[in-house]
Amino acid sequence: MKPPPDAAAAAVRANLATGRRSRGLEIGFRLLLLACLAIALITLAVLLIDIFSDGVDSLSLSFITDTPSRIDPSSSGIAPALVGTLWLMAVCAAFIIPVGVATAIYLEEYANRERWFNRFIEVNIQNLAAVPSIVYGVLGLAFLVRGPLSLENVLLAGGLTLGLLVLPVVIVAGREAIRAVPPSIREGSMALGATQWQTIWKQVLPASVPGIATGVILSLSRAIGETAPLIVVGAALFATSVPSGVFSDVTALPIQIFGWVSDPQPEFKALAAAAIIVLMVILLGMNAIAIWLRNRYEQKW
Amino acid sequence: MTDPEQTQQEEAGVGVDIQATAQEARKDHKPAPSVREPIFELENVSVFYSGKKAVDGVSADFYRNNITALIGPSGCGKSTLIRCLNRMNDLIPGATVEGRIGYHGQDLYGPEVDPVEVRKRIGMVFQKPNPFPKSVFDNIAFGPRILGMGDIEERVERALSGAALWDEIKDRLDDNAFGMSGGQQQRLCIARCLAVDPDVILMDEPCSALDPISTGKIEDLMLELKEQYSIVIVTHNMQQAARVSDRTAFLIVELDADEQNRWGRIVEYDETEKIFTNPSDKRTEDYVTGKVG
């Protein structure tokens, strides 16, 4: 016997209505997530606004072109530090691009995964990326500044140390980019009579350039902000002249910022904030270029 | 509640259909050359992947200017076998080949043979079209460029004409190959193959990813190409084999005693007409009439 229509409808209505309790949980959960997002964003906003308000007054063209002065904050500038940072990035890039890409190619295209030796390398590259940066500073001090290469504390040593620091990131990014090239492309190339090297050089690498470039830019933007390894390597906290080559004294924006922040005079703290703004503009610019590169040239297979 | 007689008639009907299609399609064929010169001579060829047998004891001769079809159910080793013919299985670690594959009389797996040289002469078209992420022109020119061939522009035009693609694409040579339709991409891959002047073209299920119209175009293309090249094709589509091929090899999957391992072997290899109208082996007949998958 079917239940009378009113009771059935009422039963259905009742079932629909009980959903309202779980609606509350849904809304509550969303609000919680939004709150977490807000905390992150507000913290970032407060940081940026604080820096900006402290430092914006000190920003000027002379700020960028002057050398720093120990005594007179008003005539201090970041020229040596800025140029030093650019030099360090150049040395770093010149090291990580060939070495990182070659390593990625070897690991992806040539190494036999079955051998324990290659698996060992693979696992440890991930570990290297997690090593604290100051350890790389000590490594640089021992082997580049002193020890076998004895470069002394020059930009070349600083740049190579930063290069060693971010090399694992480039290798991992390079491997991801190379791995993303589907095997069908390699097969198509080999089936035409190309050697493995021709296939890599003319098909696989060109297709992975956007991914590799993104990885390199992100690595450089990490390297640019590292302070600890440079201090250990012997960076000058106070540079008097703009670096002229790879054998000049090591100096960089983060070091300069560190030096000014440590100074008791309050005017130097304003200078430090201004230098931070310059550094952040460079960083954001590099990251924006990396994102643009990835979006524009990303290959959808 | 099925009527056994009715079922048998239906099954026979399916078989008759294929045979009729085959005979219909072959009416316009040029006959295969009367003098048969073998291109490939397979003698007791077995293929193993890391010790596990995939193909067992294949012996067959494939002839010049023929289209030879390999048909059979899934997993019977057709793709494995065809990939041996241009040493593409070398790219798979652990793949080994026993027996002898003679190419124009020379042992394809001989110690002094360079697989790269082999692949210059024996080209391959794959199941899923795989154009390079470059322009149409650069796709076709890639082979000639790396092999150091001259007259690149002329080669590209000849290759695209040979693949029946020139008229459609001659104004769009600089467009990215990924923008083309599936059928066009596959013809691009065929043109890419032709650009290096191969001797043999291997096709591993070239139409299975394509719509029927593109499939028809490529089948017509195959019939034109066989006058200049020798073609070996793997196909899941029996009607396709009946339509285009001169000779057909039928392979099956065999299980060993304790049903742990399976491998493929040739059951029958003969003129296509015979395979589809009057096969010698019952297993072949069951397959081509659709009684077994």
Structure description:
The complex is a heterodimer of chains A (301) and B (293). With 301 residues, chain A is an all-alpha fold. Chain A folds into 2 domains: 53 residues; 235 residues, MetI-like (MetI-like fold, Orthogonal Bundle), CATH 1.10.3720.10. Chain A has 12 helices and no strands. In chain A, helix 6 crosses helix 7. The termini of chain A are far apart. The mean pLDDT of chain A is 88. With 293 residues, chain B is an alpha/beta fold. Chain B has a single domain, classed as P-loop containing nucleotide triphosphate hydrolases (Rossmann fold, 3-Layer(aba) Sandwich). Chain B has 11 helices and 10 strands. In chain B, a hairpin with a 6-residue loop joins strand 9 and strand 10. The N terminus of chain B is likely disordered. The chains are: A mainly alpha (301), B alpha/beta (293). The interface between A and B is medium-sized, with 19 and 25 residues.
Task: Give the helix/strand layout.
The complex is a heterodimer of chains A (301) and B (293).
Chain A: H1 5-17, H2 19-55, H3 61-65, H4 79-110, H5 116-128, H6 133-145, H7 155-180, H8 183-191, H9 196-223, H10 228-233, H11 253-262, H12 266-297
Helix pairs in contact in A: 2-12, 4-7, 4-9, 4-11, 6-7, 7-9, 8-9, 9-12, 11-12
Chain B: H1 4-26, E1 38-49, E2 52-63, E3 67-71, H2 78-85, E4 95-103, E5 106-107, H3 115-121, E6 122-125, H4 136-146, H5 152-162, H6 166-169, H7 182-194, E7 200-204, H8 212-225, E8 230-234, H9 238-244, E9 247-255, E10 262-271, H10 272-277, H11 282-288
